[in-house]
Amino acid sequence: MKKKIAFTFPHLYSFGGGEIFCEYLTNYLINFYDLDLYYYESGKINQKLKFNKKIKILGIRSKNFFIDHLCKNYIFLAQLYLIFFLQKKKYYFIFSGAGEFFHKNKCFQYIHHPFYSLNIFHYLSLGLKKKNFIKLFLRFFVSLFVRLIFLYNKTKYEKTISIVNSKFIYKRLKKIYKNNSLKPYLVYPTFKIPKIIVEKFHNFEKRKNDFVILGRVSEDKNTLEAINFFLEFKKKNTNLNLGRLHIIGPIQKKLINQIKLKKLDNSDCIFYGYLSLKKRNFILKKIKYGLHFFVGEHFGRSILEMQKFGLIVFCHNSGGAMEIVANSLQKFKTKHELSEKIKLVAQNSELRKKIKKMIEKKIYKFTDQNFKRKIFDVLKIEQNA
Are residues 212 and 279 in the same domain? Predict the structure, then answer.
């Protein structure tokens, strides 16, 4: 008979890396456990998420209007509500799919990025901007409160086993909880990652001199900033014979009007919105370059996916993305630096060939099989501890 476990994820109305992680891992764990999935009801579950029918999905919400409003709008508060709600529930273990958690029973937490850091600058990696000072203050206040709770429940929190998605987050988690005996396991979130396309270099050279931005079209991903950069760069560098910019991914509601204007004003950009994997993959196989403007990316699945399809991706020199890219010419701090590096790569076929070889050598270990094996090894080791 399968043992009963609980899996938690704060919000399920979006369709990003975190939600896809929740979908994938619960569908995997149901093969070994009787699984209840808890989330805070903040809207309908995104229809693109396909959960195994055997999973019992339990949406919860507060009866208090004010608390309910806050939890619907702030994922870290929804996470806190889940922590308190599940304290009286009995399970073989609890698996938090999105952040810090404690329980009297054994608990696993997968950290994409710590929710409750007391360093305000860390919140920028969670999608907040410096201009959002009210949200920054609210997150700091709540984080301080939660950290006091963790301190009060120290013996419970020490039972929690941490799993992190990159070396960058490993170091950050250890630094944040320096007085806690955390010994995080590193498991790269390489679920659903396609196999690497190994192609001869002359076939790569036949690809279009186009660029791709892959992933959510949103403020935190700095998508509009990346689009504006490409348009300006192409205009100033006609000698490079650059093609078009392909933007693939679901569009944040607040950006829809701005995207409509971009569509009308520029024939150099193609906005696809969300695409099936088949259609997305068909496009990626025909293009040479990728752009990624997120600052402090936790891991960077879209960077990895583009590289698996043979693209040379340029990304910001920060966060976990640095563990995926292979050459210093792929990393930039400023737009000027990015411009100069794209020029170098676009004008030198031998340099492109060198970078391609380095990428293929580095990313062979980032596989779906490795993710499943490592995540299950952690569960097995700690349950037997």
Answer: yes
